[in-house]
Sequence to fold (273 residues):
Amino acid sequence: MTSYTVNGTQLAVLERGRGLPVLLVHGFPLNHTMWDEQIEVLSSDYRVIAPDLRGFGRSGVTPGKVTMEQFADDLAALVDAMGVGEPVVYCGLSMGGYIGWQFWRKYAARLKALIVCDSRAVADTPEAAANRLVLADRVLGEGPGVVAESMMPRLLPASTAQSRPDVAQAIGRMMTGNDPQGIAAASRGMAERPDVTALLPRIRCPVLVLVGELDVISPPAEMRSIAAAIPGSRCVEIPGSGHMSPMEKPAQVNAAILEFLAGVRRSGTATGF
Ligand code: MLT
Fold:
């Protein structure tokens, strides 16, 4: 991995391949390795850029709170620092999707296309936001194991947990390997993320919405309604997958992403392809 100093922090990023840049943005509280299967396949034809967000993996940690907008600012500064001159395809999972909406809102000119995997457009309910603040405090007091314990049952359906223990273990390692301060800061940032539902009809770049059939955090019906609100977008449901579709069903996810990217390359930034 290479390291860049942007916005007063150090960001670690894996870069592989050449061509249209594809920025892979991980979920909470993970790191870039959740995209290993996509990095492997996409880098044959695309310039894959897979950072660890501020506070995660090998990147620098900022205590307190990191908003979705701050993460988006970091990513824009990162691609600048890397000398990526052309607009990127942004692909984010869950929290990576929340950040993606902010990246579109502030940096639309740098966005060629958007892929939103297993994510949401609505804000947290007051109760969910309060729970995130409690979780932030608990992580600081008890360590990252508490977040792994509370999230794991909702991340993977029983079928995946049983058939792919390697996926469950990899997620557990990512979670417990993160700094409690980084986890707490992102948790507080997610608690106050804005509802972007009203903005969705204004998105004009090509958009692919991907969702696991069994995702209970960002369920298919909710993701289908996100896709329905974005002109010309496409929604692909991944059979048998939960929230972590890129890890659970990499072949199906890669096929959907590759088909979408081929369309983006063919038709530039036009919607409705
Ligand atoms: C994620 O996968 O990034 C989280 O499930 C996001 C969240 O907690 O809302």
Summary: The mean pLDDT is 96.
